[in-house]
Amino acid sequence: MKKIAIYIHIPFCDHKCIYCDFYSVIKTDSMLEFISSLKKEISSHNSLMNKMEITSIFFGGGTPSLLSPKLIGEILNLFQKKYMLSSNCEITLETNPGTVDLQKLKDFKKMGINRLSIGVQSFNNDELKFLTRIHDKKLAIKTVEDGGEAGFENINLDLIFALPKQTTEIWESNLAIAAELPITHISAYSLILERGTILNKLVLDGKVKMKDSDFDASLYEFTIHYLSEKNFIQYEVSNFSKEGYESIHNLSYWEHKNYLGFGPSAHSFVDGKRWWNFSGVKQYVDKVQKRGDAICGDEHLSNEELQTEYIMLALRSKGLDLLNLNKKYGSEWLLKNEDFINELINNNYLFKRDNFIKFTDKGYSLCDEILLKLN
Ligand code: SF4
Predict the structure, then answer these.
(1) Which residue has its alpha carbon closest to ligand 1 atom 3?
(2) Is the CB of 198 under 6 A from ligand 1?
(3) Where are the domains positioned within the chain?
(4) pLDDT digits (tens, 9 = 90+) for 240-292
(5) Nearest atom in ligand 1 to 20's CA
(6) Dihedral of the alpha carbons of 214, 217, 222, 224, in degrees to the nearest 10
(7) DSSP, residue by residue, 147-197
(8) CA nearest 141: which of 87, 98, 195, 199?
(9) Which phi and psi (to 5°) does residue 182 adopt?
(10) 273 Cβ partners below 8 Å, 6+ apart?
(11) 266 phi/psi in degrees, rounded to 5
(12) Each residue of 102-155: pLDDT tens digit?
């Protein structure tokens, strides 16, 4: 039986953070109408999901923890009752401090959520204020501790580095607090300036100055070393986990496996075909009500495009298995890039073990530039 990962996009937020370009809208009364469309969209994929084993379900957003445990339970029920879930199916809920308390977390656990991903971003109050988050350091710590007390053994924290006034000491303190908490996974991203955000306008108006790329790279290298000393294994450019706690859902993307996305702007990828939904909530609801799905576009990837994605995703995460590559796509790519790969190995950007190549710490920090040079 083929395996599939499920992503469910809940597009509601309490407010819009200044740096965020994810598709989200302020929580409205249209939430129930949205949930009913979501259920309808899920049911419309019956014939596909009947043939698949579900390995993970990820509620992302937006802020899915704004929904009640009852609503999350109703959506999960659709999958649990009708389809085959693997025995270790990972079920993640993105959660923001300020939208949950201990009881709500316990109720999410009861509904079947077995992994929390908490959008902490920083433990520094000035940084949290700058990011316009609704929580402070105390609430962030309490939310993580409540997660542990509610029975979650598998907890991820999202953290952002290279904030405009951040020093290495502030970032180290953020990592140190995180490492002391009952967590198994950290996603650490540098602050990216996205078009159309309030932050972008502040930078254009000269009111905020972003950190330069050298500082960004130095904090990134610091993060890799610091977290490895705390027994977090880097298994993707921005993701670190305790042994055995790599995210099954994230690995599905990075290992180029099948996934189905539901909700506005969600993307799906099944057997080399990709499609995506309309991103506006109203448009999404209208389309699903009329025809059962909200697909706005699709593409069939050529063999060459599939190979490129496979290689890039593997190199950004756990490394590239050259035997598998050969089996799937032949030897042409390796022959074309052999000299450059050997140069990267000789200069300690890549290492090779048996038939497997993977970035070193030094290579990870220049990963985007290196990947551009591979062809
Ligand atoms: S809570 Fe998350 S998804 Fe919502 S606006 Fe803030 S950063 Fe974006």
Answers:
(1) 62
(2) no
(3) 2-254, 317-373
(4) 999 999 999 999 999 999 999 999 999 999 999 999 999 999 999 999 999 99
(5) 8
(6) -170
(7) HHHTT-S-EEEEEEE--TT--HHHHHHHHHHHHHSS-SEEEEEE----TTS
(8) 98
(9) -80, 70
(10) 298, 299, 300, 301
(11) -70, 145
(12) 999 999 999 999 999 999 999 999 999 999 999 999 999 999 999 999 999 999
- How many A from CA of 63 to the centre of ligand 1? 7
Confidence of residue 365 (pLDDT cuts 50, 70, 90): confident
Specify the pTM: 0.95
Atom of ligand 1 nearest to the CA of 121: 7
| Amino acid present at 272 | G
Structure tokens at 280: 């506006």
Residue 21 CA to ligand 1 center (angstroms) comes to 8
Give 181's Cβ-side CA count (13 Å radius): 30
pLDDT of res. 25: 79
Protein residue whose Cα sits closest to atom 2 of ligand 1: 62
Tokens standing for residue 268:
């799906």
**Domain 2-254, classified CATH 3.40.50.150, yes or no:** no
Reported confidence tier of residue 22, pLDDT bands at 50, 70, 90: confident
Tokens of 317: 């995460």
